[in-house]
């Protein structure tokens, strides 16, 4: 598949992850953690501190040790409406990456998305909002390399205020975005926004 820019992804992508079926039907279910304001975007001066970019290679797995994520990655395309497709909701430990865009580790903005829950309970990115600045994210690539990212910020946005350019826009260094649902929950509307992790490449093995 020919690779295209992330800017074609619409903000409705984020809404597709956010049914909240477990919280709607679960007895005593609790909403997932949300990031605090102290985890917000770092100063622009920090953007120079990045490892050299890797050549393109599809990713196979994502690991976030501090929140116990260790999940395979499936390729995601675009829907007919132009939004990013989402992983099958029934596979709660599966995340997806935008395979027509940047691969994790190469220069640009790589996109990974996953559900926060499904009808059975918490899913792969349930604890994403608890992630802290400086946390590590590792992505196993098909070329045998492991791309190591450091979290710059963890932010939450209401759906109506989702910043497409900030999340999906081009980057001059290797960056990663990890996206799931958040922003509060209502039984009438489901999740009302999204948690977005911003990270950049700091090493490779």
TrEMBL record:
Pfam families: Sortase (PF04203)
Leader peptide range in chain numbering: 1-31
Keywords: Hydrolase, Signal
Highest taxon listed in the record's lineage: Bacteria
Protein name, per record: Class F sortase
InterPro entries linked: Sortase, Sortase_dom-sf, Sortase_F
Region annotated Disordered, chain positions: 29-62
Organism, as annotated: Streptomyces tropicalis
